[in-house]
Amino acid sequence: MTDAMIGLVALPLAGALATLLLPRSATAVAIGTGLASTAAAGLLLFGVATQGALHYEIGGWSTGLGIALRADGLSALLLMMVALVVLAASIYSSAYFRTDSERARFWPLWLLLWTSLNALLLSGDLFNLYVTLELLGLSAVALASLGGKRTAVDAALRYLLVGLLGSMMFLTGVSLIYAGYGTLDLAALSGLVEPGPIAWLALAMMTAGLLLKTALFPLHFWLPPAHASAPAPVSAVLSALVVKAAFYLVLRLWLDVFADVVTPAVANLLGALGAGAVLWGSWCALQAKRLKLLAAYSTVAQLGYLFLFFPLLLTLPPGPARELAAGGLVMLALTHGFAKAGLFLAIGIIQQRCGHDTIRDLDGMAQRLPATTFAIALAGIALIGLPPSGAFLGKWQ
Question: What is the pLDDT of residue 395?
Fold first, then answer.
């Protein structure tokens, strides 16, 4: 199974380099890379399901000196979601981008984004998490600017500045942890970190930086314009996966590394911000005049639902109730990833056919594009949480 772990990072990285060297064959290379990476994700998920959590130290270097890769149930499920969403969006992109110049700019960045996502979900120490988080942010910003219009460039620049600020705050927390405990290995830190000024300040800095990248209310100001102005497949992956990577890191830090540091009061504060995100994001979505802007504000609200789980996970005692809450969180996260990706891809078809996505000017769309309209309806049902969708099951738990 270690081959699958290495392949999830090496395959999309090699594909990105190949699309640079073979621009005329870039689409075929990207689709082939996507299929191979999806197979590796499926193999890893099977391995974790049958063998439990997996660990691999690249080059045989001991923990703390080399790069450690780790995969457990949560990371394996998210890697599988990433693979399926990015593969579907890659096939979609092969028809969405019609000129050679567009494809030459898109495919290397696209596969670099995939590499960064996989590496982040597999990283076993804080510094490699910072490196992969930075690579993820830079490739996401570059992809978001591919729309080419002034609004897209302005939104991407705002995204870049916010991302850099978040990364600086995260790196400051990493430095404090290393100064205080002498290691950055996640498994080792889970037994070392204890309440104190260093742990409190590091947790505050790292959490604040990640909340900026997650766009949790009221730090969401950069997300709607960036996601609404990007090309459709880019919007799909940004909304479904990229912001969720930062949420995954918050979850890991709070539940694993800083489990003895966080308090119920702080967990309730995070839950309150999540509740604010649900209300504000939903209200802004109702007021939106464009479909992509509606979907972007919906992402703000859906991320709020995920943060509502923190008070449950951090206050419930170990047992069936906490396991149900954790299962509900995973179900909501997976459902949102698939549904939001499908929603943005369907809206992209409408944009290309009609030349716009202004809601009031889309009369008769159901008759002209019935399959696309049906896809939007299915995604909406999943996001709303009507049975038997995954969001319904997650909220029920």
Answer: 84
